[in-house]
């Protein structure tokens, strides 16, 4: 920890903090002190640096991340790691709604629960939630993987395209065109690898169920009008 | 967009700081609602006494107004002025007569709230300025609810600012917008309710007061609102003994709760909690949609 570069938001502005982290030539490990729930912390990063947010984060923490590894020690507000391209984000507490929204890549791990619409419109991001997720999670998800170790709220995977959703607990209800799938050996291997990378060792991969798209709503057909 | 804050004290030792903590939370929510602000502070209930808050008693009218009050309520009444708001404390038996006097007084004087312990203040301007105008930081009490408004459904006026009080010791603050408020307002008017504004949130407050007046408990009234109110909302509802929180089924309006042994705090965003004592050790969670959360002091 001794070589950590420190940014104290009690002494500098958010813009100064983010501009220090956003350079493509930024290196090493950083810690952000006194985040106090501010919005847009560590957004738009573009270099393989380690950033630790030492407390609570507000909206859009780690948004648009490329390459960086971000850890939030407390809870995160709405839209954590939204539109992440690569790298990783870990939330040690709970995350609010729309965690990992529209993410194209990278790994988002939430050690607590995630709120509504976790992984909404995900486009390739991998999300592992140790706790439960709220309603309409993976809504319109296009690709990527959502792993939920706890329960999922109403309308899981509504209007799903091709993302994979693994849930260990109860699913309150499935959204339109989302259905349970048989788990293949490849699916199990994919899930196991993801759990390993997320550091989740407490649950065996075969204790999860797999959900995916029934592919009935890809193209409009009048007989399906009631399902939209 | 609007900002909501609420603070319910479990530890009586914090009561002298209620106003200060609430004012700090309110200021942080300025970015969510910079056009007007308001707050209800609960405390100081005394058996047999009622507090009535009114606003708009102009300096030139003060003597006439207070003389009229004294003529009804006699020497046991007391009057406290805070900027353009006035809190009248009087024996409960005179409440209805004083209400009629206020309603008939004219000169822009408007009834704001009444009850055993509620005092309610609101105005147009930055939340920080509104709070300073009434010296919120100097107020004490058991619980408080505040609101910072970014107007959508009706004009930026003092009357349109939150909280709305439509029943004894009741108040409501709202982040969101209702889409069936005109229909519901007409129905409630037929039930005998009166509304002071065209505001959607006042209809929600009136709806809850109407159900409570029919003997329902607050949690029952809130649960019924899930079926009858259409739109987006996070509500915080204050009563004499506590407050309740409800989010609509879609829950796109933010809400976060922090609980410690000393207090329960509510806010639209975590930022508002940053200066609360012991927040580092608080349990912080997001209330689930369609679920009524309720905290109350033992009566």
From TrEMBL, chain A:
SUPFAM superfamilies: Alpha subunit of glutamate synthase, C-terminal domain (SSF69336). InterPro entries: Glu_synth_asu_C_sf, Glu_synth_lsu_3. GO terms for molecular function: oxidoreductase activity. It comes from the Bacteria. This is Glutamate synthase. It comes from Komagataeibacter xylinus NBRC 13693. The lineage of its organism: Bacteria, Pseudomonadati, Pseudomonadota, Alphaproteobacteria, Acetobacterales.
Automatic annotation (TrEMBL), chain B:
It comes from the Bacteria. Residues 2-299 form the Glutamine amidotransferase type-2 domain. CDD domains: GlxB. It holds the Pfam family GATase_6. The keyword Transcription regulation does not apply. The keyword Transferase applies. One of its GO terms (molecular function) is transferase activity. Signal peptide: none annotated. Keywords: Glutamine amidotransferase, Transferase. This is Glutamine amidotransferase. It comes from Komagataeibacter oboediens.
């Amino acid at each position: 920890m001794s070589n950590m570069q420190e940014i104290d938001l009690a002494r500098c502005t958010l813009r100064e903090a983010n501009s220090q982290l956003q350079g493509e030539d930024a290196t090493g490990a950083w810690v952000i002190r006194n985040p106090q729930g501010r919005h847009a912390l560590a957004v738009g990063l573009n270099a393989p640096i380690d950033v630790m947010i030492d407390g609570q984060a507000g909206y859009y923490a780690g948004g648009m991340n490329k390459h960086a590894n971000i850890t939030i020690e407390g809870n995160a507000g709405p839209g954590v790691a939204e539109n992440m391209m690569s790298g990783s984000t870990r939330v040690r507490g709970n995350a609010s709604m729309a965690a990992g929204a529209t993410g194209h890549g990278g790994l988002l791990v939430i050690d607590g629960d995630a709120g509504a619409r976790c992984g909404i419109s995900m486009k390739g991001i991998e999300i592992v939630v140790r706790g439960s997720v709220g309603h309409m999670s993976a809504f319109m998800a296009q690709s990527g993987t959502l792993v939920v170790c706890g329960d999922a709220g109403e309308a899981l995977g509504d209007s799903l395209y091709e993302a994979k959703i693994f849930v260990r607990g109860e699913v309150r209800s499935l959204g339109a065109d989302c259905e349970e799938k048989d788990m293949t050996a490849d699916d199990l291997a994919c899930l196991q690898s993801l759990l390993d990378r997320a550091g989740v060792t407490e649950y065996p991969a075969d204790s999860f169920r797999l959900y995916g798209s029934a592919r009935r709503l890809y193209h409009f057909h009048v007989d399906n009008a009631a399902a939209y | 967009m609007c900002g909501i804050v609420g603070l319910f004290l479990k530890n009586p030792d914090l009561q002298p700081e209620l106003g200060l903590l609430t004012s700090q939370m309110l200021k942080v929510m300025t970015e969510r609602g910079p056009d007007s602000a308001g707050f209800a502070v609960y405390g100081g209930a005394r058996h047999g006494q009622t507090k009535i808050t009114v606003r708009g008693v102009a300096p030139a009218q003060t003597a006439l107004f207070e003389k009229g009050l004294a003529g009804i309520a006699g020497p046991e009444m007391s009057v406290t002025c805070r900027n353009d708001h006035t809190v009248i404390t009087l024996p409960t038996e005179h409440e209805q007569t004083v209400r009629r006097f206020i309603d008939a007084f004219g000169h822009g004087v408007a009834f704001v709230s009444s009850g055993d312990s509620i005092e309610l203040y609101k105005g147009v301007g930055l939340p920080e300025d509104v709070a300073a105008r009434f010296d919120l930081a100097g107020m004490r009490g058991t619980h408080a609810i505040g609101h910072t408004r970014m107007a959508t459904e009706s004009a930026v006026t003092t009357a349109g600012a939150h909280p709305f009080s439509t029943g004894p010791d009741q108040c409501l603050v709202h982040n969101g917008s209702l889409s069936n408020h005109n229909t519901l307002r007409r129905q409630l008017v037929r039930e005998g309710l009166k509304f002071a504004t065209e505001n959607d949130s006042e209809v929600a407050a009136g709806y809850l007061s109407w159900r409570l007046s029919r003997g329902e408990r607050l949690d029952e009234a809130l649960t019924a609102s899930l079926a009858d109110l259409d739109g987006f909302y996070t509500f915080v509802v204050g009563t004499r003994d506590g407050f309740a929180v409800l989010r609509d089924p879609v829950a796109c309006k933010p809400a976060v709760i922090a609980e410690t042994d000393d207090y329960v705090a509510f806010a639209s965003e975590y930022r508002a909690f940053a200066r609360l004592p012991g927040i580092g050790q608080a349990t912080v969670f997001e209330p689930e949609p369609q679920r009524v959360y309720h905290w109350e002091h033992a009566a």
